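Researcher: Structure for this, please.
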Amino acid sequence: MAGQDPETTALAAELAGMAEADHAAAAGANSDDPAAQLAWRRLTARHGDRLNEIMDRVGWPTADLVGAEAARAAWLIAQHADRQLDVQRRALALLEQAVSEGRAEARDLAFLRDRTLVNEGRPQIYGTQIAGVRDGAPVPWPCEDPDGVDARRAEVGIEPFEEYVGKFRVG
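Model: Predicted structure, token format:
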């Protein structure tokens, strides 16, 4: 658990700090301001590079290693490494192993799997990725077997699709 040794404590704090910086800069991802978009891209690239180094050292940073907050931060960093498919694919494989060992959440794996699939130009499985909002309605990326999406979502602890996309409605 986090706090057992100074190196693990420092790693947990670093991951949490990266997530805070991510949240603070996230509005820039879809900003009309090119400087804000560029700042977002640079931040997520730095974070992706650092996550790759962390994965070299410890594998997937699970909650039992770094604590729940830092493990969630690692997942967020992987989610946002959209321009670093190698990092996303590696994180996906390590997270999949951690889930199979009962050391990480299947819900997080589902979101990262969908994000990676979308970034590869393939249909998502769980319907977690939204391409944007058109006329106030969310537009999800294409999904494999849309009729079975709610059953797959339920298996990993994600709310039904309509409830989820309702969070993205505008107006």
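Researcher: Any notable elements?
Model: The helical segments are 6-25, 34-58, 63-66, 68-79, 85-100, 106-119, 149-155, 161-166. The longest strand covers residues 130-134.
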